[in-house]
Known about the structure:
Two copies of one chain form a homodimer.
Chain A: H1 14-33, E1 37-38, E2 44-46, H2 47-51, E3 61-65, H3 66-71, E4 83-85, H4 90-99, E5 108-117, E6 129-138, H5 146-161, E7 168-173, H6 174-184, H7 189-197, H8 199-213, H9 218-228, E8 231-232, H10 235-245, H11 251-270, E9 275-278, E10 291-296, E11 307-318, E12 321-331, H12 332-342, E13 345-347, E14 355-357, H13 365-377, E15 382-384, H14 391-401, E16 405-410, E17 413-418, E18 424-425, E19 443-445
Parallel strand pairs in A: 1-5, 7-9, 14-15, 14-16
Antiparallel strand pairs in A: 2-4, 5-6, 6-12, 7-10, 8-9, 10-11, 11-12, 13-19, 16-17, 17-18
Amino acid sequence: MSKHAISGFPEWTPAERAVEMHVENTLARVFELHGFQNLRTRSVEPLSALEAKGETSKEVYLLQRLQSARESDEPIDLGPNTLGLHFDLTVPLARYVVANSGSLVFPFKRYQIQQVWRGERPQEGRFREFTQADIDVVGQDQLAFHHDIEVAETMLDALNALGIGDVLMEVNNRKLLSGLVAAVGASDFDGVLRALDKLDKIGEGGVREELSNLDLTDEQATKVIEFAAITATTGKQLDSKIAALGLELDAEGEEGLEELKTLLDSLAEFAPGQVKASLRIARGLDYYTGTVYETLLPGYENYGSICSGGRYDNLARAGRKTYPGVGLSVGVTRLVALILEAGLLQTERTSPAAVLVLVNNEEERGTSEGAARQLRSRGINAEVSPSSAKFGRQIRYADRKGIPYVCFVRGDEYSIKNIVSGEQVDGVDLSTWQPDESVSTTVSPGVDA
Amino acid sequence: MSKHAISGFPEWTPAERAVEMHVENTLARVFELHGFQNLRTRSVEPLSALEAKGETSKEVYLLQRLQSARESDEPIDLGPNTLGLHFDLTVPLARYVVANSGSLVFPFKRYQIQQVWRGERPQEGRFREFTQADIDVVGQDQLAFHHDIEVAETMLDALNALGIGDVLMEVNNRKLLSGLVAAVGASDFDGVLRALDKLDKIGEGGVREELSNLDLTDEQATKVIEFAAITATTGKQLDSKIAALGLELDAEGEEGLEELKTLLDSLAEFAPGQVKASLRIARGLDYYTGTVYETLLPGYENYGSICSGGRYDNLARAGRKTYPGVGLSVGVTRLVALILEAGLLQTERTSPAAVLVLVNNEEERGTSEGAARQLRSRGINAEVSPSSAKFGRQIRYADRKGIPYVCFVRGDEYSIKNIVSGEQVDGVDLSTWQPDESVSTTVSPGVDA
């Protein structure tokens, strides 16, 4: 992390940024492979839109023009049109879809990789500016269940392509949870979900206490904790574990169970061992109506979910039209922090250049530039040495920047040396020479990955 | 442009965004080809840093947490630590370089493609959020002149790679201008520069009036307007035109002239016809100390400069160390607006998918997904039809999204049809099939380019 930090506003060094770019570019490439279209929305929304979700409105940064602040001794206007920075990419998506519904083709499949801001109190040590990478499929009035499978498959493909080792997606279904809560005889569905969400933080005892505060009996609380403990990797396994609970599911619960079984068995086909139903996944603070997802890196569970989401049957609504959606969001900044701390990816280069063309003396700089131009015309990143000092010093510049090759120029004769291995090739033909594939990427898996 | 707009916060449609992504990705690729390393800085700086430049401080957006605004009836704090959104990428660069100088390798070559914000009054109709793409080379204590050539070459390569037609870079040198102003006998150098900057807006008469307000005589004003009218494409031509003025240059002026001639003749070698010295380029509002650049698209001069910059001998300073820099900045949002309005690039696709795999019925969806997976494994973007309605309706979905191919699946037999040309191939082998190169990109030159 770079120096001169402002708490909550992370800033990577060039080498760390190379890792972040690898993450962003890989996610984008795989999202496009699956036909998701990039969208970029403005960074601001009016306060009225930011507050529509209620709870999260605490974390908004409002904007005021410096000039207007200077000219006024009034506090900042809290009216509905005051602009604030968006705190997620879902609020802008919902607004965008409604405003542009006439020109979009539904189902609308979009991805967005953008910064979001949360006006957290500085002392909490959380990110106040970070990057999210979201995919969503949004329908008009209807959205088939197979899109719940599609977004999970797309995201697993994308996370697997990062080369950071194993990824585990935990899934659940709000309709199944609703059926289970009803079968237990509890009435406060949202309250039970919020209690379940705290399982990691407050443990089973704490959850029992919360449930008791919601007027659940000990017996009811035990049932809730029993079903929340269920995990399964196949539909069959899930069926038998739920049957063993001896609870009678209502129609909604049965529908949720069917969906969850379908999701599990479909994903198991092409991502074996990467998907698990876990009935404790509630995501109680969000407005999901069906499938919910969380994603962990096994071995790094303490970092929490790196990618979460779910189905909203009412992502947006306008007049008589509804816009159901299903999506997943990667916390890119948090994931990159994990990758860097755990050494899951490493960078050896702080320059994208594969070759540094050396300069004999300032009079011959043009010749070296010609050589670099020839390499670039073939897509090979090449830099010309900034100085014509002794070759030792020029090579040291390449070494410090992690540039793997240097090119010596003698008239129209070229020698290229791999400064890592020490291997040198003379009489190189610049119109055909290629760097080793192993040094053509700047980011490689860490020893732990 | 999308609907529900907030004045000054542009938001592209998916098709327009495809053009913007082409611009951003092409610029990034060419910057890396020349060895520039990506950097991303946080979006905020403390007010003290944003105000350091003086004049531009009018245009800052300050941030205040909604929660703190609710709890207070005080106006926003205008102290030095209050956070504001950055209005350019130069202030963050200068701060970053000083803070991290111990771990950077100089000359530090970085590019940054990020959003910036200007707290303009809404009625002015300017962009208040837009994307800039900057390249800079920053030295420690010294920075050789050949970097002035390097950034111009890199940027011309990048702009040429966009495929938007001809690009003209106009260059000048502040030291030459200083010498000319001194030779004319005027004392207020900054004032003369500011007057020259308005030549486009207020014409020759207006500039004369401004110069007269600066106490220049008619004769002096005429000389200023005469040298400002000089243009040249070679060093030799520049020499003779300046000699014809009959003004005696001081040492600084001679140095500037030598630099400008070197720049012109070096760039003419590999970008013939794309670079012109134009002595009216002043960039009076910025703190440049040598070379200055502006870039026009011939035929679209009324859009103004799409890419500007220059050399700062004091980009930053810390203790006894100085950090001279030279760089160029593309106004990406403005350039994309021009490209879209003038039709210089066009998109035919609002989906990155090259192939839509059709679905016979929901029971056979899995088979179609398998076909899509096979295409994706070979890097071909493929989407599965969201519905299993009649093929006509599925093909219409592809057509509306601009997806050029549809794939019919009959068991393990595949037919692929180009829905633009109508050409259909049966018995396709999905492990070798390739889309036509002409449809593999989503953005193509417009008819006018």
